[in-house]
């Protein structure tokens, strides 16, 4: 609910209100403005200034937003339904999916350098992908933080394999744009092909599962992305060790 720039704008007294609110969500949503001011040891004017900096016209609007935020967090639950993952794994055995994996394997084989990219949970998958492909004989690097410097001739003409569930992360999109400016090919693994990262990519493979968020955190399953990594890695190994006729075995 509270953005970084909002919190940074608070003075010492307003920070007292912020500290009290964050520690007492359950109480504050029922408090009148005078009660909150008394508990936070500030004036009602300070509370109103705090509300304004939180983009609220007054204390009443602030309480509404606070209640919505609190109840939204309570409503969301993490389920362990694996139906979609099972459906995805079944789809990967189709002839069409096999052909796409074979085509992507050929792209990977031709690449002199491979960089795996992702942030958050997708960054963990990127790290796993680089380690997995390296185990298959194709040395790779990974980038899992947004401000990693990529203005280097080393990255020119590399194949960049990008992981992003939403395909709309500003950090990941920024990396993709910078890599494209260095003539890199982009292969993206996203939840849907109708996203910015996929549209910026030379190649895309999408897996289509339900987005799942727990408050502000994306907890969408990464099992399809990991499955794609492993399928491509094993095809890569067979391709390089046995020849091109064995990619679909």
Structure, explained:
The protein is α/β, with parallel strands linked by helices and 249 residues long. It folds into 2 domains: 4-75, Orthogonal Bundle (Arc Repressor Mutant, subunit A), CATH 1.10.10.10; 83-246, 3-Layer(aba) Sandwich (Rossmann fold), CATH 3.40.50. It has 12 helices and 7 strands. The chain has a 5-stranded parallel sheet with strand order 2-1-3-4-5, sandwiched between helices. The chain has a two-stranded antiparallel ribbon with strand order 6-7. Helix 2 (12-23) crosses helix 4 (33-40) and helix 2 (12-23) crosses helix 5 (44-53).
Topology:
Blueprint: H1 4-8, H2 12-23, H3 25-28, H4 33-40, H5 44-53, H6 59-75, H7 83-91, H8 95-110, E1 114-117, H9 121-135, E2 140-143, E3 159-164, H10 170-180, E4 185-190, H11 196-200, E5 203-206, E6 213-214, E7 217-218, H12 223-242
Parallel strand pairs: 1-2, 1-3, 3-4, 4-5
Antiparallel strand pairs: 6-7
CATH topology of the largest domain: Rossmann fold
Major sheet attributes: 5 strands, parallel
What would CATH call the architecture of the largest domain? 3-Layer(aba) Sandwich
Shape: elongated
Pfam families: HTH_6, SIS
GO molecular function: carbohydrate derivative binding; DNA binding; DNA-binding transcription factor activity
Domain HTH rpiR-type: 1-73
Protein name: Transcriptional regulator
């Amino acid at each position: 609910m509270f953005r970084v720039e909002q919190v940074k704008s608070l003075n010492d007294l307003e920070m007292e209100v912020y500290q009290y609110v964050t520690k007492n969500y359950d109480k504050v949503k029922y408090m009148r403005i005078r009660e909150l001011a008394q508990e936070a040891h500030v004036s009602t004017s300070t509370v109103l200034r705090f509300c304004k900096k939180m983009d609220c016209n007054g204390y009443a609007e602030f309480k509404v937003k606070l209640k919505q935020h609190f109840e939204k967090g309570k409503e969301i639950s993490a389920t362990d339904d694996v139906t979609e993952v099972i459906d995805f794994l079944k789809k990967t055995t189709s002839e069409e999916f096999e052909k796409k994996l074979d085509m992507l394997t050929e792209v990977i084989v031709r690449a002199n350098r491979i960089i795996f990219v992702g942030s958050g949970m997708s960054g963990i998958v990127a790290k796993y992908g680089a380690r997995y492909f390296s185990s298959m004989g194709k040395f790779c690097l990974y980038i899992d933080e947004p401000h990693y410097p990529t203005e280097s001739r080393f990255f020119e003409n590399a194949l960049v394999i990008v992981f992003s569930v939403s395909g709309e992360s500003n950090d990941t999109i920024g990396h993709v744009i910078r890599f494209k400016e260095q003539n890199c090919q982009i292969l993206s693994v996203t939840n849907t092909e109708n996203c910015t990262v996929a549209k910026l990519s030379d190649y895309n493979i999408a897996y289509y599962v339900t987005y799942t968020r727990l408050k502000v955190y994306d907890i969408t399953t990464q099992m399809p992305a990991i499955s794609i990594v492993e399928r491509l890695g094993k095809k890569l190994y067979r391709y390089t060790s046995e020849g091109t006729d064995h990619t679909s075995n």
